[in-house]
Amino acid sequence: MGTVVGTADDCREMFEGNVQTRITPFSSANQIGNPVTYKLVRVAGDGRLVPATDEEILEVNETDVHITTDACQTLGYLPTEGLSSRLSQLESSEAISSGLLQSDNVEPYTEQVNSRLECFNEEMLQKVEQEERLVMIDGSQVPSTPPEANIYCSNANKLFDEDQVHHEALLQEPFLVSSNVQNGCDMNQSNTVEPCSNAAASPKETALPAAAQKPDFSLVRGEICLDNLSIKALQETFRATFGRETTVKDKTWLKRRITMGLVNSCDVPITNLTIKDNKLLGNQEKSNDVSEDMGDLKDAPSGNDHMNGNSKACGHSLSVNNHYCATEDFSCEERAAKRVRKPTRRYIEELSETGERQQNDKSMVPSKDQSPSEKSEVRSISVSSGKRVTVTRMVSLAGSEIEVPYVSHVRRSRPRENIMALMECHSSCLEARASAGESNRNLSPSLSQLTSEVVNRSSVVKPSGPVHKEFATSHNSNNEEEHILSEVDQDMEPEHMDSSGNSSDDNSNTGAPIMQGVVGLRRKHHRAWTLSEVTKLVEGVSKYGAGKWSEIKKLSFSSHSYRTSVDLKDKWRNLLKASFAQSPSNSMGSFKKHGSMNIPMQILLRVRELAEKQSLVPPMSKVVSR
DNA sequence: ATTAGGG
DNA sequence: CCCTAAT
């Protein structure tokens, strides 16, 4: 609930902040066809739509979305998820909005209608899809939408039939209007928004506080409509809606399910929204079949509203839900979220990066084609194809607006903190650059910030400025360069060894030769191991035993902050390999001809020695060492 | 948080 | 070196 309130506030902000209320050209409605999903969004003072949270993802129809429209949708649509209950919650906001709208222009009505239409369209699309699915599944004739449903639809249409003739055509498709939608529409019924505000407002106040005593709003037409249906009919409807049979006999359940299904079908991932709501309740119904789970998940997000608003209507089933939710509300949410985010991994992220960009590109095209959306501040593209949703937002920069990919605050570069700032900076910069360039050369504030941040960091470490060494030469073969550097290091190292201990030295001297800024996109930082390092490593191993990498790192590599225990481990592994590989044929002498570093025989021998020792007496060595 | 291993 | 899984 609290969340809801917050939403309302946001809405208010939107309205207030948004000076220019724009009316969506009707044309947009015509073009509809893209499912639109709105999530918690707020409008910045300048009118930009901004995700309520950084992580918030806003899926919006790419076509022009107007703030007003958005507001409408936010108000009307969001609630939709939760059904009537939601509506009640939003009432206040609606009232506000309505008031504003009224004062503003008469147009709001139109806008609302549009928004609504969009909703309908979405639903219709969904419906159609479902139908198709059904066909595929059954092969038999598609269960036509229950007559009632159609009737219902027709009613809904009547609301704004005059304006949208074309829409009707679309609506002709079997199409169930969810109660929510209805509610949302109610506002529109009267030309003036007033009625809606009034009607809505009153219920809400009562409803919100005490769920127990709620007005009849719970009995939405949709509900009623469904009510009239027999169980069988409901099942049919269910089937039509979800594309699968259901054995559930519970009328209430069916109704709810259908309603919610219709509602939810509009928006796919709602996780964000849910998360914000502490109260988001999961829908826990025991599903009869597996697929049911999916539905539940979907429902989960909106569950909250449901509870609040529909408790009355749904009766017992709801009460059960409430209970469940009360205890596990959040977990439910999480569950859903997890499901959605499952594939999340940094690795995957990177991979998907490309996809995102592509998507962006795509989005660009349609935007032009679809309709000139001059003003849409935010245009986010929902990609139905992929699970990932890319969000972009327009940022006015230097007078011109540019589309910028919305970047999550999560840092992309490697997690390690020590890492030579330089390298990180490099990689980050490169990344930033790359992404910026790839994404239509847009400068994203977030990106820039990131970059600057990185830069600052680097500057702290190395005030002198951005890497110089690295830029020196950028051959295609980094290895060579690195190799050379390593050699240099080797030469220098010995000297440092004695005085080793000051990290600054390491940073500047041991300096990371790495990313050759210009050419390679290679983001791997590589720092060749110096002889001294190897020596230390071996020493450490002999002292503390292999496997005590953290110890070794602490005691023997205090000065080399960039070597992590993992690095040590890896290096040791390599050394072992090398030592054993070389032992058979000592002919090579003290130097390996390979590209790898020259490792003195001595060391290799020592390594082998240690290795054998440890392998033979693993436990002892560890204990003994100290 | 470390360590062991695979890539 | 990087990334993960298992401790």
TrEMBL record:
Residues 284-308, 350-385, 493-512 are annotated as: Disordered. This is Uncharacterized protein. Residues 529-576 form the Myb-like domain. Residues 499-509 have a biased composition (Low complexity). Pfam families: Myb_DNA-binding. It comes from Thlaspi arvense. It comes from the Eukaryota. CDD domains: SANT_TRF. Residues 350-360 have a biased composition (Basic and acidic residues). Residues 521-580 form the HTH myb-type domain. Its main location: nucleus. One of its GO terms (cellular component) is nucleus. It is found in: Nucleus. PANTHER family: MYB-LIKE DNA-BINDING DOMAIN CONTAINING PROTEIN, EXPRESSED (PTHR47122), TRF-LIKE 6 (PTHR47122:SF3). Keywords: Nucleus.
